[in-house]
Amino acid sequence: MAAQASTKNRARNLRIALRYGLIIAAVTVTLTAGIYTSQRLQQFMIRDPRFFLPGPADYGFESPNLELDGVKFASRAQILRLFEHDYGRSLYLLPIAERRNALLNIRWVHDASIERIWPNRIVVRIAERQPVAFIKLQGDSMARWALIDGDGVILDPPAKAPFQLPVLAGIQPRDNQDLRGKRVRRMLRLMKDLGGLAKNVSEADAVDLDNLKITEQLEGSAIVLMLGDRNFAPRLQNFLDHFADIHHKMPNATSFDLRLDDRITALEAGDDR
């Protein structure tokens, strides 16, 4: 009886071993076939001319198979140059992540996406930066005007820029982007708080983040107003309500301190710090 039981166990173990062996063999064959098929397909997509991205028809032209969407102020030529090495190659080889990172280094580009359209087209979608103010940058020999966005990125103004924006003082090229961004966001908070009162503001000064100043155009004169760090709209409205009387009594005053909510203080030249 013991011998028969031992024989049955060996037979059962043999059947189990054979079954697992067949499963392993089948999996191995399937994986090998899959890898082989994948490699063949990959080689087909790399070498078949139907997947090649056509280049421009001639120098100075653009490839009809490379579509740019959302480009208004960013350099179109600079964007297209990033894809020059992809012309005449398979779309399969396009390094999307690498090309996108390069696009994000272009000054006006805030975000970008690249889409393969099989068999041989590319669509590049650009989200451009939105300027919120003009800034005046002082160079070694002369000053130049530029734009700045909400992240503190300095942008070269395009020709015939159609922007109606305030001037933001206090931005220096040597400042890091984080500091520039703080100054811009303080200005944006100020303008939002002023609401409709901001229509006559020609310049905002964010040199001192805790004491914002604006230049208001009133009665043909540029009036500098110190608003502090809060209550911007009430302080400005209070000044406007009393401006006629102030201007009558002090027609030559052009700078005022409004940081105390219950008073308006005229400043002498050099005191608007």
How are the SSEs ordered, and which strands pair?
Blueprint: H1 2-47, E1 66-69, H2 76-81, H3 96-104, E2 109-117, E3 121-128, E4 131-138, E5 143-149, E6 154-155, E7 167-169, H4 177-194, E8 201-205, E9 212-218, E10 221-228, H5 232-249, E11 255-257, E12 265-266
Parallel strand pairs: 1-3, 7-8, 10-11
Antiparallel strand pairs: 2-3, 4-5, 5-6, 8-9, 9-10, 11-12
Characterise the protein shown here.
This protein is an alpha/beta fold and 273 residues long. The chain has a six-stranded mixed β-sheet, with helices on one face. Strands 1-3-2 form a three-stranded mixed β-sheet, with helices on one face. Helix 4 (177-194) links the parallel strand 7 and strand 8. It folds into three domains: 2-40; 66-128, membrane protein fhac (Ubiquitin-like (UB roll)), CATH 3.10.20; 131-266, 3-Layer(aba) Sandwich (Rossmann fold). Helices cover 36% and strands 24% of the residues.
